[in-house]
Amino acid sequence: MKRWPRRAFLQKSLQLAAVAAAGSAAGGCGPQRLSEQDALALASVQPQRPLFFNISLAQWSLHRSFWGGMDNLDFAAKARALNISAVEYVNQFFADKADDNAYLDQMNQRAADNGVTNVLIMVDGEGGLAHKDAAHRQQAVINHHKWVRAAKRLGCKAVRVNAMGKGDPAEVAKRAAESLDALSTYAMQELINICVENHGGWSSDGGWLAGVMEQVNMPNCGTLPDFGNFKMAMFPPREYDRYQGVAELMPYAKGVSAKTYDFGIDGEEPTIDYRRMLSTVRDAGYRGYIGIEYEGARLSETAGILATRNLLIRHGAA
Q1: What is the four-CA torsion angle of 238, 243, 247, 249, rounded to 10 degrees?
Q2: Residue-wise pLDDT tens for the chain (318 aa)?
Q3: How far is residue 250's CA from residue 259's CA, in Å, rounded to a whole number?
Q4: Is this structure's pTM higher than 0.85?
Q5: Backbone angles phi, psi at 251, to 5 degrees
Q6: Which of the 8 DSSP states describes residue 226?
Q7: What single-letter DSSP state applies at residue 93?
Q8: Are 137 and 129 in contact (CB under 8 A)?
Q9: Neighbour count for residue 188 (Cβ, 10 Å)
Q10: Fewest Cβ atoms closer than 10 Å to its Cβ: which of 135, 147, 251, 270?
């Protein structure tokens, strides 16, 4: 057992007491967290020097609001109110409007009215591109076509898709590559990029997904590295190293997703080293959009988005 000299012991005791008091002031014995009020105060923060990337807002950051009745057409105005001038849509919030040009034109008008750029559409629920059944995969590719057309109508540059699948990793990769090749060929006619996100299963293995990109080898097919989605399995838990995964996916990146869950009192995301992540993104030569995707529950969606924006500005400027 280590014995402390009396003076050192007293100093250590005072330090521990101060930490305990700070923890009590924050509402518990755990680490201090950024408050709602302090996060909301970050709304006016602006970069002091140009960033090497542009900031966009992923619509999923507001999923609680949209499931609660917020109108999809109000998304652009909400982004502008948060000092963000580009948006990434989620097809779930206008699922029946992919072929409704009049509605898409309204979305365009709302974006234009607020000086907001439409970046991409994240597509879910249209079938598995790496499904075991060939007919299912073929239909999934066709189902994605309407979102490629919608992206073009909205002036987006990309559609984000998923490439999860069950089975032997090499076989799943082969199936995913075939579907992505077919979808990218269609999207090329519309001048739209197809981005695959690490989004569970084998797709959360950075090396595996990089290998799929090599198999497809098309200029408009790439990745959308997400800082947080590296959970490959729940039972038993299996997670890929997030820093290795982002590094493996960045050479193919056509977008980047800045995932956050919570913030310490210093404004840092406690589970993700943002300085390290942004260094990896920068060193890969990426100069496009980084989309804010706040998924936390403690702070409001608005506060979480602003805290993420501040985090990107602080480390991006550094």
Answers
A1: 40
A2: 333 343 443 343 333 333 333 333 344 456 899 999 999 999 999 998 999 999 999 999 999 999 999 999 999 999 999 999 999 999 999 999 999 999 999 999 999 999 999 999 999 999 999 999 999 999 999 999 999 999 999 999 999 999 988 999 999 999 999 999 999 999 999 999 999 999 999 999 999 999 999 999 999 999 999 999 999 988 899 999 999 999 999 999 999 999 999 999 999 999 999 999 999 999 999 999 999 999 999 999 999 999 999 999 999 998
A3: 15
A4: yes
A5: -60, -20
A6: B
A7: G
A8: yes
A9: 16
A10: 135
Q: Which of 221, 114, 121 is nearest to 178 (CA)?
A: 221
Report the C-alpha gap between 123 and 38 in whole angstroms: 34
Residues 250, 224: Cα–Cα separation, whole Å: 8
- Helix (DSSP H) and strand (DSSP E) numbers for the chain: 11, 10
What Å distances lie between residue 39 and 95, 254, 265, 275, 303, CA to CA?
32, 29, 10, 19, 5
DSSP-derived secondary structure letter, 264: B
Residue 99: count other Cβ atoms within 10 Å of its Cβ: 12
DSSP H helices, the chain, are: 6-25, 36-40, 63-67, 75-81, 101-113, 134-154, 169-189, 206-216, 242-249, 274-283, 301-317
Q: Which of 291, 227, 301, 226 is nearest to 57 (CA)?
A: 291
Cα(109)–Cα(310) distance, rounded to whole angstroms? 28
Phi and psi torsions of 280, nearest 5°: -65, -45
Write the single-letter amino acid at 160: R
Distances in Å between the Cα of 48 and the Cα atoms of 45, 250, 309 are: 9, 26, 14
* Distances in whole angstroms, Cα of residue 119 to Cα of each of 29, 45, 88, 148, 250: 42, 23, 5, 13, 18
Residue 81, φ and ψ in degrees, nearest 5: -65, -25
DSSP state of 84: -
Per the CB < 8 A criterion, the answer to whether 130 and 172 are in contact is yes
